[in-house]
Amino acid sequence: MIQFTRRGALAAGALAGIAPLARPALGQGRYPSRPVTVICPWGAGGGTDATARIVANLLEKELGQPFNVVNRTGGSGVVGHSAIAQAAPDGHTIGMLTVEIAMMHWQGLTELKPTSYTPLALMNEDPPGVQVNVNSPYRDIKSLADAIKASPAGRFKASGTGQGGIWHLALAGWLLAMGLRADHVRWVPSNGAAPAMQDLAAGGVDLVTCSVPEARAIIEAGRARSLAVMAAQRNPQFPDVPTLKESLGIDYNTGAWRGMAGPANLPPEIARTLTTALQKVYDGREYKEFMASRGFGVVWADAAGFAAFMERSDASLGAAMRAAGLART
Amino acid sequence: MHLSDRITGGFLVLLGALAFWGGSRLPAVPGQDVGPAVFPMVVGGGLALCGALIVLGIGHSFEDEETEPVEAHEGLARWLGAWRALAAFVPPALLLFYVLASEALGFLPTAFVMVAVAALSLGASPRLALAMAVAAPPVVHLVFYKLLRVPLPAGILPAPW
Amino acid sequence: MTAFLEAMRLVAAPDVLIAIMASAVYGLVVGSLPGLSATMATALLVPVTFYLSPIAAVATIITASAMAIFSGDIPGALMRIPGTPASAAYTDEAYAMTRKGQAELALGAGLWFSAIGGIVGTLSLVLMAPALAEMALSFSTFEYFWLAFLGLMCATLVARSSPIKAIAAMLLGLLFACIGIENPGGVPRFTLGITDLLGGIEPIPALVGVFAVSEVMRAMTTPEPPPLPRRRFGSILAGQWALTKKYQWPMWRGNIVGIIIGVLPGAGADMAAWVSYATAKRFSKEPEKFGTGHPEGLVEAGASNNASLASGWVPSLLFGIPGDTITAIAIGVLYMKGLNPGPTLFTERASSMYALYIIFVLANIIMIPLGIVMIRAASLVLRAPRSAVMPVIVLLCAVGAFATGNNLFSVLLVGLFGIVGFVMERNGYPVAALVLGIVMGTMVEQNFVTSLIKSDGDVLPFFERPVSSVLAAMTIAALLWPAAVWAIRRLRPAEAAR
C-alpha cells in the first residue's frame, strides 16, 4: 500500500509540479529494466479491461516496475491483438489475449491466430448462460428448449454480442447439440452484453446467451432469470443455475477466456520470469478476491498449458463456426 | 479553397454513388436478411440526392452572404506570395511529420520542430518561436506522460523524469 | 436519517475530500485540452481508484466527469475549439460571443448553468431514480432508432447555413461512421485493407481535426484578427442571475431534456447538448439571433449536458447498464469496490447511496469557484499573440489524438479531418453537423438494422410500440416542418405579386 500513496499523490499533484519519483533505469540489466506496457484489446470499463488492470497492478508489485495498461480498442479486438503481435519482443510490451483470437482468423478478419504469440498464462474463463425476461413463460431450460424445438425457424430472437461473437457461437453450438440448425434461433447483433440485457428487459429479444456475471445486475434487479450455464460445473457464485448437462442431458460447454501473452519470439528467460510472476499473482488472495467480486471465473494454465488450451479452443471454435456457417475460410 | 456549389455538390453526388455501389457489393451475412449493406446504401443514396440539390442551387438562399476573407501577409503566407493558400497545409503536414518522426526522434525533438515551424509560419519572431519550442514540449510531455500516463516515445532524447 | 448522517461522515473523511479536490482540478484541466474527452478523463482515473476507498473512488469519477464536461466549453468559447464532443453543438455560438467581447458572459453561462444542470440532475436521481429507470428499461431498439433519428435532425436546426448542406454534412458524417467492422454484420466496410481502419473513425480525432486543426489552417492564411479590447476580464458570475430569470423556461427545458436523454442507455451528454441547443432555437422568440452570439442556446444546452451526466447514473446504479461511456467505466469501479449495482444498493447500502448524492451536489458546487479560477487562467490565451498559441494547439492535437487509442494512426486522421473541415468550412458546409453524424452513426445503424432483424424486415413494428409511435410522430413532424416553412416562404411573395 506504500505504492498507492505515492501514485495517488503523484496523479493528484503532478500538475502542481511535484517531481515524479520513478525514474526509468537507463542501463540494461535484469528484466524488466523499464516500465512495461500491457495492451488491452477492449475498452475501459469492460471485463477484459478490469482483468488486465488487476493483473498489471499485481505484476507491478511482483516485478518492481510499472505495468501500464493501454487500451488499444477497435475492430472487435483486431486492432489491439495486432498491436500485441507487432510489438518488439523484448518483454516491455505484453498484452491480454481474449477468446476472439481463436475466432477472428476463421472469419477472415485477420491473419493472426493463437500461434502468432508467445503464450504466458491463462488467467480466466467464463461460460455462457441462458437468460430470459422475468415475465417470460419459460421457468426452466427444458421448457425453453422444447418451445424452441417446436417453433418455426427464426421465430425466437436471441442476442448477447455482435454477429459471429463468442456468445453467438455459444447459441449456435447449443442449437446444434440439440439437433437443430445453427440459425434456428435468429441472432440479433448487439454492442455487447449490457445493451443485449437491456433489450431483453425491454422485451425486444427472447433470450440472451451472455455469461452470468455480465447478466448479474439485471438478474438481481428482478428483471431477468438465468436458466442454465453451458459449462461442466455450476458457478460457485451462482449456485442455483444448473448446467446444460444436468438439466437437458446435453454435454455442451464453451466459454470466453482471457490470458496473458507477448509477441512471438519472446526470449525464453523473460517469458519464464513473467509466467512465474503471473503464477504468484494468480495464487495470491487479491486476484482471487477481485475476480470473485465480479463473479468472474478463474482458471490457471502455465505457458505450455495455455498454448495447448488455445490450440484446443481454436480447433473447436473453428469447427463450431464452420457448422454454424460463420466461418469464411 | 473556395469552390462553387456545382463542384462541391457534384463531388457529393459522386461520393454518394460510390458509397451506394461499394455498399451494394458487401457480402451478405449468413442467417440474416438485413446485413451491412443496407446502411451505406441508404446514406450513399441520401448523399447523392443532397449533392444533386446543391448543384441545382436549392437552399442557397438560406446561406449567409459569402465574404472573401482577407488574406494574410505575415510569416509563411508572405514568403509564399501568390502561393500563400498553400500555407494552410502546414498544420496537417506537421501532424504527418509527427506520425513519421516521433517514434524515431522521440517526443521532445519532434515537438520542438513542430512548434518552431508552426510559430515561424504564423509570423512569430525567431526569438518567440525558439522560446515556445523550448518551453512548450516539456510541459505537454509532463502532463501527458506523468499525469495521463500516455506512453510518449523517448527516442533520442528521453525526458529527465 | 441515521443513514444520511452516516453518509455525511463518509463524505467528510479526509481522503474523500482530497480525492474530490484533486479530481476536480484534474477534470478541469483534461476537459479543457482539445482532444481529451470527459470519458478519457474518467478512464485514466481507473488505475488510481484501485488504491482508494470505495466512496473516494466513486467521488473521483463523479467529480472529474462533471468538471470535464464543463471545462470542454472553455477552449470552445475562447478559440472555437471544443474540448469535448458535448461542447461541439454550441461552440460557434460561444465563440461569437467572445468575438463580441462577451467572453465572460459566455463562459459564465457555461459554468453557472452547468452547475444548475448538475444539481437538478442529481435531484432527479434522488427523487425519481426508480421511475426513470423504469422508463429506461422500456426502450427497445425501435425507440432508440427514432430517438437517434431525432438527434440527427438537430443538424439542420443548429447550422446557420443551407439546410441541404447541413444534411449533406451530417450524411457525410454517417458515411465516415460506416467505416470499420463495428457494424451489426461484423463485416469490414470501406477499410481499403488498412488494419487501423477496422476500428473505424472515432469521434474524437474527427472533432479535433475539423475544429482545432482547421482553425489553425485558417490562421495560417488570414491576418491576425484585431486584438480584443484590452480590459480587465469582467466578473464571471455577474449577469448570470439576469440570464437565469430571463431564460428560466429554456433552462428548465434543458434540465428536463438532459435528464431524459441521460437516463437512456447509449445516449449521453453529447446528444443532450445537441437536442437542447436545437430545441432552444426552435422555441425561441428570436431564433434569428442564434449563431451571432446569443446566450439562450448556451443556457439550455449547458444545463442539459450536465443534467444528463447525473441522470446517466440511474440505469447504471439500478441495473448495471451504463447510461453513457462514463458510467460504463464507473460500473467497473463500482463492482471492483463491492458496491455492486442493483436495487439492493439502494436498500442495503443506503448510506453509500446518500454519500454518492452528496458528492454529486458537492462537485457541482465547488465547480463554481474552481471554474472561475480556470476561466481566468484560460482567458490569458486571448491576450497571447496568435503565433504563440496556435503552435501549442497543433502539438496538443497530435498528443491528444495519440492518447485516445495510443495509436499514431489517429494523429494522421486528425490531419486529414483538418483538411476536410477546412474545405467544408470555406464552402458553407457546417462541420458541427459532420461531427454529429460521426457521433450518432453507430447508434443509428445498430438500432435500425437490429430492429429490422427483430421484425423480420417488417417496418410496422417501428410504429406499433407505444413509446416508439410517439417518437415516430415527433420525428415526422420535425421532418415536415422545414418543408412547410419553405413552402410558405415560396407562396408568400407569389401572393404579394398577385
Automatic annotation (TrEMBL), chain A:
Signal peptide: none annotated. This is Tripartite tricarboxylate transporter substrate binding protein. It comes from Neoroseomonas eburnea. Pfam families: TctC. Belongs to the UPF0065 (bug) family. It comes from the Bacteria.
UniProtKB/TrEMBL annotation, chain B:
The keyword Transmembrane helix applies. Residues 7-153 form the DUF1468 domain. The chain crosses the membrane at residues 38-58, 79-98, 104-122. This is Tripartite tricarboxylate transporter TctB family protein. Keywords: Membrane, Transmembrane, Transmembrane helix. The keyword Membrane applies. It holds the Pfam family TctB.
From TrEMBL, chain C:
Keywords: Membrane, Transmembrane, Transmembrane helix. The keyword Cell membrane does not apply. The keyword Transmembrane helix applies. It comes from the Bacteria. The chain crosses the membrane at residues 12-36, 48-70, 105-129, 141-159, 166-183, 256-280, 313-334, 354-375, 408-424, 431-449, 469-488. Residues 17-436 form the DUF112 domain. PANTHER family: TRICARBOXYLIC TRANSPORT PROTEIN. This is Tripartite tricarboxylate transporter permease. It comes from Neoroseomonas eburnea.
